[in-house]
Design goal:
Blueprint lengths: L2 H22 L7 E10 L1 H4 L9 E7 L6 E7 H5 L13 H11 L16 E2 L6 E9 L3 E9 L27 E8 L5 E2 L2 E5 L23 E8 L1
Parallel strand pairs: 3-4
Antiparallel strand pairs: 1-5, 1-10, 2-3, 2-6, 6-7, 7-9, 8-10
Amino acid sequence: MNFYKFSAIIFLSIILFFRILDGFCGDGPGNEVILTFNIHLVQEVYEESDWGEPPQFAIWLEEPETKKVQTVFVTHRTATGRFEGKVECPVSLPVWIGVFRRETGRKDFPTPQKPFLESVTGATPKTEHFSTNAKVPKGSFWYYYIEMNVSGDFNQFFPSILPNGGPDYHGNGQPSLIYRGEIKAVKGEYSKPKIIGRTDQLYFTTEIISDLKGIDSAKSVFEDAFVICK
């Protein structure tokens, strides 16, 4: 075997070795895929609320075995505690607040002085279409959640003035809704979440209440939501 042929074999062997290594190593860029979250908001629905403002919402992932959570996106007001005319609004996205506490180890709420991570925080979308991405290991399996809340969307079941004559202090109306789905991180995989429950109109709780009686317009804020793996 001459020198040039031997060198070519060695060179090709090295390339093959690194390709095999890339296939088994979970941390290389070739072993990550992108989950793209797409949401179509209906402007006409949330504009009929008393405040007419776009919804607050958050998206997060949960690893089924370890229960580790990772926020993908959360709207600015909830992530920073900068609510107009309020010091705080604990009923905005309460289930996500539970996620925030698990991620950060904190026991409070995000504040202007101590906000959540800027890298996953964004302005409340004022367009119909919203999308955001998350990188995850190829082949991994995830639960994903979306929590959404429009303030001031009162109705007879969630009124601004309560039966005892007291007000809805936070101007919440219909409480936040929680969507849930599952997806495997394989290119081409597609998933649509379903509403699994709501929170409480008046009080902070991370409990998801399955009873959706009285929820009407809130269910129509998202015309469509889906996740695709790229």
